[in-house]
Every structure is written in structure tokens, then in C-alpha cells.
Amino acid sequence: SQQQPLSSFSNVTVEQDGDGIWVVTLNRPSKRNALDETTIEELIELFSKAPRLGARAIVLTAAGDHFCAGLDLIEHHDKDRSPADFMHVCMRWHEAFNKMEYGGVPIIAALHGAVVGGGLELASAAHIRVADQTAYFALPEGQRGLFTGGGATIRVTDLVGKARMIDMMLTGRVYQGQEAMDVGLVQYLETGSSLDKALELARNSAANLPLSNFAICSAVSHMQNMSALDAAYSEAVIAGVVNTQPAARERLDAFAKKTAARVRPNS
Ligand code: 1HE
Where on the tree of life does the source sit, at the highest rank (predicted)? Predict the structure, then answer.
């Protein structure tokens, strides 16, 4: 069936170039891009549709001085939600972030300013994180009388390990700069613009065959949820499909004819 186009969003903007590079911008800077229910619904639609609307790589960025302040605390305060209400809120966050992590299209988060609480949960659902010198990371939920509900217990723990995760949650510890790199919160730390670097990485990733990227940006995550035995089986099946794709033939021919680039150390 024909894929429906994107709705017009109020809190998120989407720019697409002719090569399938999408730039998705959280666009509620006056509220530091806090994640309200509307934004989460927009992210669900966007990341559900993007793989079938031709996105080859997506850069996730944000307007204003901060990437994202996490859960919209004012909305949460005003709605005075019940446990069931908030459970359903969290289920929608999981829907959005799972669409990102398992959707098969590379997502590169370009980070600056506060990347805190649910903002860090959002960033951790991307496949690559790039920080600039202003970016800082924390989980202030404990201090606010809250708990993470958007997947941090899984994804941030995967990035930094259990001991650092519990320390961040208990003490509100802030990571930034080289330390954020060293603990694994980000993969790139830029002296210049994180957006420029994320765009470069997106273009590089988009030069891979889409089926390879689909496997990279879904299979690794799925395999983490499996036993080693099932993961090895799945890897064999996926490699069977990906590594025999007709589109790979030309790249293999180039290697055989010695015209393909060789892997060399960084200069
Ligand atoms: C907000 C939010 C928000 C700002 N919800 N409205 N997250 C936090 O605990 C982070 C809370 N926010 C902050 O610590 C700071 O706002 C920032 C470091 C992000 C930015 O500081 P600053 O000085 O630039 O801005 P500000 O003056 O604090 O806020 C500017 C406006 O943004 C103000 O609104 P205004 O209408 O009074 O102008 C703030 O109310 C608004 N704002 N952050 C709503 N978070 C699924 S569970 C997830 C659990 C969590 O994510 S807990 C949240 C953790």
C-alpha cells in the first residue's frame, strides 16, 4: 500500500534533501524542547513512516540552546496523572524510541546544551551520538521525585554500565566533554558544530546499501534481547540475506578488480 505522507507537525520539523538525508529538529525551544504528549506522538509518526518514505539516514537535532529537557514537567504537573495514565505515557515514549532503535534507518543525534532526563533517553535511542562542547548529560529524575520512564534503565545502562547508571540516577551527576566520551555516553566530541559532524556521518552511512543499514540498525539491538545461541542463528540468517543481495555485487566486483578503496589507518 502507498505510504501516507507525514502530517504537518507542531513541535518537530523535518527537512529532506534529495539523497534521503533527513534532518529532524525538536522545535519547542521556549520550553527547552521538553517532551510533551504532542511531541511524542509526532516522533512516533515520524519514525514509523521514515523507513518507508525513503529516509536513508536521519540527523536528530534541536532548536535553541538545549537539546532536550526531558519530560514536560509542567504538563505532568498540570495533568496530575494517575499511575495508569503515566504508564500509558511511558508506553508511548517506548513506542517512539523503539521505532527509532529498531527501525533500520541510521539515526545520528547531534547534541548540544542540556541532554537530560527524557532528553538523554531520546538521545540514547539514536544509533550514534555526537556532542559539542556545550553538551551535558544527567538524569535528574531522582531529585525531582521521579524515575526514568522512557527506556533509560535499558539504553543508558547499555551505554555507561550499571554502576555509573545508578550513580547518575542517585546523585544527579552531570557528565560533559571528554568525560562523557570516556564513559560511553557519546561517540564523537566536536570542538565545532555537532550538527555538521552528524550530517557528515549521516552522509557516510547513507552511502551504504539500505539493506546493510537496515540490518545494522535493527539486528544488533534485537540480538541483545536474545540468547547467544539465538543471536548467532539470527546473525547467520540476516547475513545470508544481506551478504547475497544483488546490489552488493558491484561492490564485490570492484574489490575483486582492485578498484575499491582499501581500509587504511587514519592519517
Ligand atoms: C520546561 C522543562 C521541562 C524547561 N518541562 N518545561 N528534566 C529536568 O529536570 C530538566 C528541567 N529543566 C532544566 O533543568 C532547565 O530548564 C534547563 C537546564 C533544561 C534549561 O535551563 P534554562 O535556564 O535555559 O531554562 P529555564 O528558565 O529553566 O526554562 C525555560 C522555560 O522552559 C521555562 O518555561 P517558561 O514558560 O517559564 O518560560 C521552563 O518551565 C521550561 N522548561 N524544562 C517543562 N522539563 C518518561 S519519564 C522521563 C523523566 C524525565 O525526563 S524528568 C525531567 C528531567
Answer: Bacteria
Predicted complex ipTM exceeds 0.85: yes
Q: For the chain, first and last CA: distance in Å?
A: 48
Contact 189, 177 (CB under 8 A): yes
Residue 169 to residues 23, 74, 135, 140, 142: CA-CA distances in angstroms?
Answer: 31, 21, 18, 7, 6
**Single-letter amino acid, residue 160:** V
pLDDT tens digit string along 36-92? 999 999 999 999 999 999 999 999 999 999 999 999 999 999 999 999 999 999 999
Cell of 72: 514536560
Cell, residue 15: 527537512
Query: Which of 39, 73, 111 to probe ligand 1 with, by most ligand atoms within 8 A of CB?
Result: 73
Is residue 23 within 8 A of residue 61, CB to CB? The reply is yes
Of all protein residues, whose CA lies closest to atom 36 belonging to ligand 1?
31
- Do both 171 and 242 map to the same domain? no
Nearest residue CA, atom 39 of ligand 1? 31
Please indicate, yes or no, whether residues 38 and 91 belong to a single structural domain of this protein.
yes
Tell me the C-alpha distance between 192 and 213, whole Å.
27
Are residues 234 and 174 part of one domain?
Answer: no
Neighbours of 119 (CB within 10 A): 29
Going from the Cα of 68 to the center of ligand 1, the distance in angstroms, rounded, reads 8
Range of the domain at 173: 12-206
